[in-house]
Amino acid sequence: GILHAHCAAIALARGSLPDAQVEADxxxxxxxxxxFITLLLVAVAITVHVERxxxxxxxxxxxxxxxxxxxxxxxxxxxxTARGRLRIxxxxxxxxxxxxxWCGRRREARGLRxxxxxxxxxxxxxxxxxxxxxxxxxxxxQLTAARRVGAAGALGMSxxxxxxxxxxxxxxxxxxxxxxxxxxxSARLELAHALADLGAELSRSGRRTEGRDAQRRAISLAGxxxxxxxxxSA
Length: 234
Prior knowledge:
- It is a single chain.
- By secondary structure, the chain is mostly helical.
- The chain has helices at residues 2-14, 17-30, 38-52, 55-67, 76-89, 93-109, 117-128, 132-149, 152-166, 168-182, 188-204, 208-225, 228-233.
- α3 packs parallel to α5.
- It starts with a helix and ends with a helix.
């Protein structure tokens, strides 16, 4: 079960949603619900369903995780991040941001500074809620940490979400950098997200032809990953 959980997380990071779901589902069949790895398996499965647009299935898994009692379990950060992303996808921005901020408080209380992807996902949600000051603060903190670590996938994701939170010319430059970084990585799904966000921002700024080209690339790549929700929105 532990091996399947980590294989699922790797497949998700690479953007292979079918493989991630198979690994997560297999792991959940193999372990008791009380096992410490269960929350990681549930978190990966939730994220896969969110990317596929299967929000009802993701919500059922989230309720399963909640029944386990998450207060002092291993991988609670992964679960809270996944549930936060689910709630944001459902349009429940305040609840989703609250989950992510709760995750951050727990990690910081334990001195855990990385990974800090909760900041990356919280920043655009907070910006959409009008809390631009906190959104930009978290986005810049995450980007600084990601540059220091240097992992391409995490850096690309941090650049993308910072671009969404900050907006304007700086946001567009960050989105372009995200695409450039991710094109050299194995994080195909994150590249698809970056292309879609870049395309949308280019179109909003009047560069519609360039924006459509980026969106077409995003649709193609999202389809290869199995990310139906992203392909449809793009």
